[in-house]
Every structure is written in structure tokens, then in C-alpha cells.
Amino acid sequence: MQNFRFHNPTLLDFGKGTIANLSTLAPKDARILMTYGGGSIRQNGVYDQVKAALKDHEVIEFGGIEPNPHYETCMKAVALACQEDITFLLSVGGGSTLDGTKFIAAAIPFLGDDPWDILAKGAPVTKAVPLGCVLTLPATGSESNGFSVVSRMEPLEKRAFFSEHVYPQFSILDPETSYTLPPRQTANGVVDAFAHVLEQYLTYEVNAPLQDRQAEAVLLTLIEEGPKALENPTDYDARANVMWSATQALAGAIACGVPQDWATHMMGHELTALYGLDHAQTLAVVFPATMQYCRGAKKSKLLKYADRVWGLRDGSEDARIDAAIAKTEEFFRSLGVKTRLAEYGVTEGIGRVGQRIAARGEKIGEHAKLGREDIDGILALCAK
Amino acid sequence: MQNFRFHNPTLLDFGKGTIANLSTLAPKDARILMTYGGGSIRQNGVYDQVKAALKDHEVIEFGGIEPNPHYETCMKAVALACQEDITFLLSVGGGSTLDGTKFIAAAIPFLGDDPWDILAKGAPVTKAVPLGCVLTLPATGSESNGFSVVSRMEPLEKRAFFSEHVYPQFSILDPETSYTLPPRQTANGVVDAFAHVLEQYLTYEVNAPLQDRQAEAVLLTLIEEGPKALENPTDYDARANVMWSATQALAGAIACGVPQDWATHMMGHELTALYGLDHAQTLAVVFPATMQYCRGAKKSKLLKYADRVWGLRDGSEDARIDAAIAKTEEFFRSLGVKTRLAEYGVTEGIGRVGQRIAARGEKIGEHAKLGREDIDGILALCAK
Question: Model's pTM, two decimal places?
Fold first, then answer.
């Protein structure tokens, strides 16, 4: 096992009816900026629940944070927050709203010239406005970590940052808020969480059997519960199990003491920036291809994955690895998420993905060895 | 799944050489009371590592905290801490030293008449002196939770409390510190951690498949790694895997949204108070008997445990449950921990256990239904 530090200070309040607890979780004397997305929270009752819980708080609203939240939009919220002397941010929505809110939290007190540097140049985040979250879409795990991914329209970029200062102080997770999600978002959430686990699990052996089993626990639960949530959107337990799995997928425990990959995410971010695919769509496309391309380096973990997650114990090692990759792709497709670039109309200029990553001087993957040619090779495997 | 709150703010610094990080983890301006046990830290080099890391800090020492830390000893530390204007406590040792230190932390600013009320009457802990920990014995999980168990000599009592204020701010977990543990303490630690998981897992189904699998992950890892640590005490990975398993066993995640039992611990605490058995010895004795006595109420979970933890899939339900209980007892015995009261010379007056618990008006177990007769019945099953 590798040495590690683990620290996750977020309070999670999970279950039916927990949005009412905002009245005590949100700091009493704060001036709160409530951030949200395109307005689905007005249709599904979440907006009303939040406003009712915060009736004795000072709340200013900022709506319109997009999926793959835009830097430009976030900077409008930063301006509003400064103008209104905001002291607390409350994200109400899915991972995009929350990621945008984390960036807003870091950008408000940022001392450098341009907050975009936090994303593009790793400029240090030394403080942030405290924030909380009401989650309505289980997927990104952002509700219990310090990660944020933000996109810029000009020039087209999608970049991530991490800071210990942007862990939510609390996150409220009421599975009932996910009842009204469109199937596409439910399916995307399951794929996203599944891919988060794979990024931390499908690397190489470092003798960390507990972390391996904790990762498999999330994968097996998503395979079992994801389809139930899709089939019966108001199945409380299925929704709760998917929501908790998505949180646990990226709350830090399964990353303790093990190497991590994240190559698929790096390529996926470029595909979203260039072609507008949903984040989970990019992962469903790229992950099986990454497994295939890196099957040598990932061999021992692919065999463990085949055995423990898919029950594949017969045949040669190569046959089991082939079958595990096929099972992964089938699982994504069974949720309705397509797994080939051509199916999303992406057929031209795919070389730009590797070009853009290489231009930043980055090599990716758990060995930091994958360069432009490898990326081309991976994307060729999932072209059609 | 049941509603739940999860909040674990402890920073864990895990791995070889991490004691040196005390120099930055311990608050710079604090007056630190360093607490420890019987002095094994002087033999195994931990004392020297801690002192070296804290050479620029103000440190006062308090040694001699016993296994099953004594209220009387803790109160001496409270007096010293008040006299010396201590502002931070650093526990260096195993779970007993840490549990004692948590009680000291809560007792120093306690506003009631008698700090024993925190343990005996659930008197509220509204604040505590901040504390940190260097762990040398993986077992109790105290390094990452708000629990503490303290014993009193007159009258004989062993009682527990929980407070959000006594989570360690940080815990340093260097698996190498466990190389020199006597086999009895290594084995006890594995049994203790295993029993902690069972208390949270072997109850009844509430449709929480992720938490079930996370619990099984810890159990399977302890079964695999515990014997390796005993056989080869300087096997770093085995020591690391046992240490991380013991922490994860009681850090809160597997308790999320599920019922909990703790009847075995309640009976075990009485056996330690009355007869002086090691904590883990009491668990090794009582747990198989509790499984046997409560096999009806715990049926579905016992069958899951038989299947997933012990691979028992053949035969009738009763036969599988019998086999799973036998496997559990065999596992404890294989580690060298005896599982019958008579083997510890306990043959007389066992009825006092149920009597004492009943006298407090408590019913125990996940259904809070087990009373004096049930306790007598359970202890009869593990008498000899």
C-alpha cells in the first residue's frame, strides 16, 4: 500500500425529507447566494422546499448555471456575490451546479489576476467562501470532495481543480429529488459514478485488498441498482442506493493508498469541450477503449475486475479480459448510453484530442506515460 | 435504507515514516499533553520519533494509562492538564490510551459535578480540548471516531460515550509501529475490528447493498491479512492492511443507513469489568453465541454472511448458518483467541452480567429487545 492522507470534512445528511434540515445546517447569520441550474428545481418541488427551509435566512439567487458549468457564467455569479457581500454559497442541483459553485467560492477571494488560472495553471487556492449543497442528481460525487470541473467557451477548454477549501461544509442528499430526472440523466449518473471507481481501481496492484473490495462494492451496487432506478424512477431504495454509491465513488476512501488513472476523464473532457457530448457519454465511449489499449499495463487488475465484478472465471486470461471489457460496454449500452464516437456523430478531427492534451505537455494515465499517439490509438478503438 | 447523517472530520495520515509529520500536524502554539500507556513506546522507538517531531513544541507527558483505561487515572491527567494550562492532547499508543485521552479531553472543560456522569448518565459533552493521535495498535477504530470506553474500579464499571467533540483532529497511522506488538495484541486487534463490523452488519435487511458489501470488504480483508500479520510480524503490507481495516471498521461509513446491534459489546464490557478479560477475548467468546441465540432475528443477514464471507452456499439454511457460526469461532481460535468462558477460568456468577445490564434498565441488540434472560441464554451458549 502507498502512503496517503485522507481528510473529508463534509457532513452528509442523507434521506427522505432532509432538505428541511437546511434551516439548521445553513449558517444563521450568513448572506447566502443560492446557485442553481436551468430551473428543473422549480418543477420538481426542490426550489420550494429549499426556500421554505431558508425562510429565516437572507438568500439571494443566481440561476442558470449550465451543464459543464461555464467560466463566463460563474464569473457573473462572482460579481454578484461581491456586490451583495455574500458570505455563504448554497448549490442546489447536480454536479455541474456544484462544480460551478466551488469555482465561484474559490474565485471570490482569489488574489491573482485571473481566476481562470486556478483551472488552467493550477494557481493556488488559499481560501474560499464556505459552501453547502442540496444534491438533486447522483453522479459526480462532487457533494463530498474538493474537485470541480469548469468549462470555458473562448477558447474552448474544460479543466479541473482540487482544493481542500471547496469541500462542501454539508451536503443534503434526498434520493426523492432524483425521482423526476430524465432517463438520460439517471443513466449518465450511473456511468459517471462507475467510471470514477474504475479510474481508481483499474490500475496496477499495490497490495491494497480492502480498497479493491471497497471499489468493487460500489461497482457491483451500481450494476445491480442502476437498472432498477431507470426502470422504476420512484423506487426509493434504488434511488438511494445509486445516490449513495455515486457519493462513495469519489469521496476519497477507495483512492487511499492506491495509484489512480484518470486518462479517460482527460480525454473525455476534451471530447465534451470539442463536440459537446455529455460528460458520461464521453466516459462510456472512452473507458472500454482505454481498458483495451492498456490491457497489458492493467492486466492484473483487469483479471481481478473480470472475476469479482463480472464473475468471469473461465477461459484464458486474454479471453477473460476481452469478456470483462465487453461486459463493461454492454452495461453502459444497457443503460441507454452509446459507446462509440460515430454514434454521437463524431467522425472528424478526433486527433485534436491528443493534440490538445499534448500541447499542454501532459502525459496521462496511472504511469503518466500516455502521449498523443496513445490517445489517438485509444480513440481509434472507440471510433465506431 | 434508513436516513442518516455522516460526518467524520478526522485527518488520517497513513504510512511509513508519518510520525515525522507531527511537526506540522500538531498546532504550533499549543501546550501539548502527550498521553501514553505502560511504556512500550519507549522500547519500540515511537517515543523517540514523537519527541523528535515535537522538538519545537511545548510538551508535557502523562504516562501510565492502562488497558481499559481507568477513570481514576484519567482524572489525574485532567488535574495535570488544568494545572499546566494544556490546550492540546496527543495520544500516543493504542485504543485504550486514545479512549482515555478522549475522556480527559471531555472532562477538562466539563461543567457538571462529576465527569463520570458523561459515561454513566450520558451527561452532554458540549466541548472538549482538541486532540490528536499517534496509533500503535490497530484494533478499536478510535483513531477515526468519536467513541470512548472507560472503566472505573470502584464501583466496577466499564462504560462508553460518544461525542462529535472528541474526534481526533488528526491520527497518524504508521503500520511499522505495530511490528513489535505481542501476538496476543495483534490477534486481539483483528478480533476487535472483525466484531465491530459484525455489530453493524449482522442485523436485519434494510436494502443497503453498498454498506453490506463495504462491511464484507473489511471482514474478508481481516480474514486474509490477520493471519499474515501474526505469522510474519514485519510484513509491511499485512500490517498496513490490518491497520486500515481496523480504522475502516469503525469510521462510520458501514454504519450509514443501517441498524446496529452492539449487544455483544455490552455483554463484553461487563465481562471485562467483572473478570478482567481482554476486550477482544470477550468479543470472541460472546459473538458466536449471540449469532446462535439470535439466529432467527438475524437470519437473512447470517445467510448473506455465510455466502459472501465464508463461501457457504450448499445445504439447508440452518446448516449454512451453523457453518458460518462455526467458521467465525474457528477464525478467532485460529488467531489464538479462545472462545469459551471456561477457557478463561470464568465459571461462577455469570448471571451478574445480565443482572447489571438489566439493573440499568437497558435492553440491548438491534431491536432493543434482549433482556436479562436472553443474556443468560447467550452466555450459557459460550460457557464451555
Answer: 0.97
